[in-house]
Every structure is written in C-alpha cells, then in structure tokens.
Specification:
The structure holds 2 protein chains of 2 kinds. By secondary structure, chain A is an alpha/beta fold. Chain A is built from 10 helices and 12 strands. Classes of the chains: A alpha/beta, B mainly alpha.
Chain lengths: 320, 175
C-alpha cells in the first residue's frame, strides 16, 4: 500500500466503496476513470470485488452450529419468571410530594412516598425478588385515580391489589382488615388487633402498618392511637396523615402529631348496625379499641349504618 | 400491555440476534447465553424505548454491548491462560463446525474476520452480514457513523490483504 503513488492512495477508500456498492455515482465515475488508466488500481478493485463476493457467500452461508431453538426456549422461560416478579412503576409529582406507584400483572403492589423523584431511593429498588422496571405508562391511570382521590372526586381506589410483597401472614391480615375501614372513618391499632383475633398485638399492628406497601389504597391513615393521637404515618410523614384525614372530613386538631377530635365524631360500637353520638348512654364502653369513629353522619350512613334509636343522632346531631 | 408486544419482538428478532452473536463470538454456547441476556435486558428497557424507535438496531446495540463485555472478559481469561501455559497469543478463535460448507476462500475470510480487533469485527458483521446502516452501527459501538464506516473499510482492507496470495476468480459481484 505504501508503494502506491499518492493519487492511488487517495482514491483507495473510494475504490473500496465502489467495490462494495456504497459509492455515490460521482465517486464511482472518478474511480472508473482512474482505474481505466491505472492497472494496479484496476487489479485492486477486482480484488475488492472478489472480497465482496466472498463476503456475500459468508452472508448466505448458515452460521456454524448456531441453532437458536434451545436458547429461545430458555429465554421464554426466563422471561416468564421475570414477568412473574415484574413491578412496573412510575414516579409522579403528587400533592403529597413525589410518589411511586408500582403494579404487577396481578394488581397494584406498591405505593410509596419518596424523599426525591429518584427511583434509587425507593423501597422498591431494595425489594428482594422483585424486578422493578420503570414504565410510567403502566402506572399512569393509577396516578390519575390518586389525583381524583386527593381532589375529592372519588372516595375509593378500587384497585386489584397484589399483596405478595407483604412481610408475613400477620401483616397481610392487618392490611386486609385495614382495607375494610370506610372512607371518613378512623379506628385504633388496638381495634385492628382485636379484629384479626390478636387483641394484645397492638404494637405489632402498628409496625405492620408502618410497612404498608400500598398506602392510600390500603387506608392505614385511618388507624390511630387508642388515645386518639395520630401517632405516626409511613415513617415520619404524619402531616400526610393529617392531610388525608382532613380530606375525608375527619376533624383533626392539636400540635405535635395531632389527634382526632373524638367529641366531634359519631361512633359505632364494634360491629353494631347503628351509629351514635359519642355521649350516647347506650354505649357499653368507649375505648377506641372497640369503636369506629365517623367524621359525619353521611359517612356513617354511606356504609349502611342507621341512627341509634336511643341517642337519635339524626334528630340531635353533634353541634359544631 | 408492553409485555405482550415484547413477545412479538422476541419472535421477530431473536433468531437474527442469536446468529449475529454466534458469528461475532464464534461460539454457539456464547450466543445462547448472550442472546438470552440481551433480550432480558431489552425486556427491562422496552417500556422506555421511544415510540417509533428502530427496534432491530436497538437490539443489535444491546447485543453488541454485551458481546464487547464478553470479549473483555474473554481476553482477560485468555491472557491469564497464555501466561500460565505459554501457548502464545491465540489470534484465531477457530470454528471448525460447518466450515466445509464454504469454499476455501470464504473459510479464510471467516478466519480473518475472527481475528479482527473487536470493533472492526462487530462493525464488519453488522454491516456486511446483517446489513445495518452506519448510523445504527455507530450507535451500537458508541462512535460516529463515519467511524463505523472506517472500521468496516479497515476490516475489508485486512481481508483483502489476507487473501493476497489467493488466485482471484474474476466474478462480477452479485449486487
């Protein structure tokens, strides 16, 4: 190559381009003119054309021992496993701050309040066994449901839930009991503990709800301390609990974590079909472990409760 | 759902990506592993692929990236092996299976390609065997289309030099 005269060396890339059919017409003309008077380059061009022919043979030849059938079958099986562990998530900017919503094929599996809009900081990223894939489109309609909920345009998130990332059977039972709490109502950790047949497990219930994988949809914000204090929410986000309860018409007052104003709420004793004013003389007892509180008569009646025939909250409602 | 669409992607492209990886690695078993890995990666990234993207070129880029990591690991392994056995460098990965199907000259081309530097081998295979355009090849190799073209041309020069002693039958190229 070094022995080529400069003009031949300069034309060499074009020669290759012509040989492999990639030269522009003008370039091809220049090359044709050159090789018509330059025997070495003519020879070189025919060499490259021969190479192109051999490469074409290679293209048409089967690849040695490359049968993709087995690899394809293994791939299908690995993809099926991956899909079964897949959580498609989106991160959205909500009125409660950055929020991650994740779903699997079975249902919604994760709602998480984030410190920042980065997925790396999420619990989902550290969830053993889960395959987290960002896919905003898959979670977009769920986020719109959340916005409707936070805007007061809907009172339920009727999502199919995927509870496989719960930590234990106990936590699952706590979450299921919590998900039965109606909109606009609150009860205590102790009540949930009683509800699932472990009346002394109040602290364990609180812990189980601290790690609620699907807050809002599983309304752990409706579970409070036996004294009426809000205690905590999603770690240290008790202000979000206040916001969610205020949205549902639950009266919250006081400094610190705040507390619900029990005297301003209607009450249901255990699983009675009636609701009362909090001062009703017929109430057998009043610890929050036995009561569900409602922010308004409408909320109590929305779940099918009727006014107590003794205290008659319909005739003597709680005065504001 | 996106996952269903991905099944169509596998059906349409797995065979070709597998062939590509078998060619560039020279080992069917590597192609088996790497093609699976490429499609698992693709599955995870598929939802964020912009609509209208060239899926085939994107898959080639993923496969190319994986094969480059594979080459790096292979050459580390080989260097260690050479140092231990003092066998000298292995330029030719060797693939005896199926070679009889090709003419002697094509077999030589194949061996020269197998001995090319990785980038040239990948660029050559994508362009001359799978007929991707230079933009796609550049995207796969993290270089410009112009550099991708230079890699292909350099590969062709080496093949041509490697065949200098071969009697060329003057056939018109098929294209």
């Amino acid at each position: 190559m070094n022995r080529m005269p400069p003009s031949c060396r300069e034309i060499e890339p074009d020669l290759v381009a012509v040989a492999i059919g990639e030269a522009a017409p003008a370039t091809a003309q220049v090359v044709e003119a050159h090789v018509s008077r330059c025997a070495p380059c003519r020879h070189e061009l025919s060499r490259y054309r021969a190479v192109e022919g051999l490469v074409g043979d290679l293209r048409r030849a089967p690849v040695p021992a490359a049968d993709p059938t087995l690899a394809r079958a293994q791939l299908e099986s690995r993809l099926a496993d991956l899909k079964s562990r897949l959580v498609s998530f989106g991160i959205f900017s909500s009125p409660l701050g950055p929020i991650l919503i994740g779903r699997s094929e079975q249902g919604v599996s994760m709602v998480e309040y984030l410190e920042s809009a980065a997925a790396a900081s999420s619990r989902l990223a550290r969830l053993a066994g889960a395959e987290a894939v960002e896919n905003e489109g898959a979670a977009d309609s769920l986020f719109r449901d959340v916005l409707d909920y936070l805007g007061g345009r809907r009172t339920r998130l009727d999502w199919p839930l995927d509870l496989r990332w719960t930590r234990s059977d106990f936590q699952r039972r706590v979450l299921e009991a919590t998900s039965r709490l109606p909109y606009g109502a609150v009860t205590s950790y102790a009540h949930i503990a009683r509800d699932i047949g472990t009346p002394t497990a109040t602290r364990a219930v609180a812990q189980a709800l601290r790690w609620n994988p699907i807050p809002i949809a599983i309304p752990c914000h409706r579970v409070i301390g036996s004294s009426g204090g809000l205690t905590g929410y999603a770690g240290s986000k008790v202000t979000l609990k206040q916001q969610l309860l205020a949205l549902e018409g639950v009266p919250v007052a006081g400094g610190g974590a705040g507390h619900v104003e029990r005297r301003a709420m209607y009450v249901r004793y255990l699983a009675e079909s009636e609701y009362c004013v909090p001062t009703c003389g017929e109430l057998p007892s009043t610890p929050l472990s036995e009561l569900t509180l409602f922010g308004s008569r409408a909320r109590a009646e929305a779940v099918g409760l009727t006014p107590c025939t003794s205290c008659r909250p319909d005739l003597h409602p709680i005065s504001a | 759902m996106a996952e269903d669409a991905f099944e169509a992607v596998v059906a349409a492209h797995h065979g070709e990506i597998h062939r590509y990886l078998a060619r560039v690695t020279g080992q069917a078993s590597d192609a088996d592993d790497l093609s699976q890995e490429a499609f698992l990666r693709a599955f995870r990234a598929y939802p964020s692929l912009p609509p209208g993207a060239n899926v085939r070129a994107w898959l080639f880029a993923i496969a190319t990236n994986l094969s480059r990591n594979h080459f790096r690991a292979e050459s580390r392994r080989r260097r260690a092996h050479v140092a231990a056995s003092n066998d000298g460098p292995v330029a030719d990965t060797g693939r005896p299976e199926g070679e009889a199907m090709l003419s002697e000259a094509s077999g030589r081309v194949e061996r020269i390609v197998a001995g090319l530097p990785h980038k040239q081998r990948l660029a050559f295979t994508m362009r001359k065997i799978h007929e991707l355009n230079y933009e796609a090849i550049g995207a796969s190799l993290d270089c410009s289309a112009e550099s991708a073209r230079a890699h292909v041309f350099q590969a062709l020069r080496k093949i041509r030099r490697g065949l200098h002693d071969l009697a060329i039958v003057h056939t018109e190229p098929s294209r």
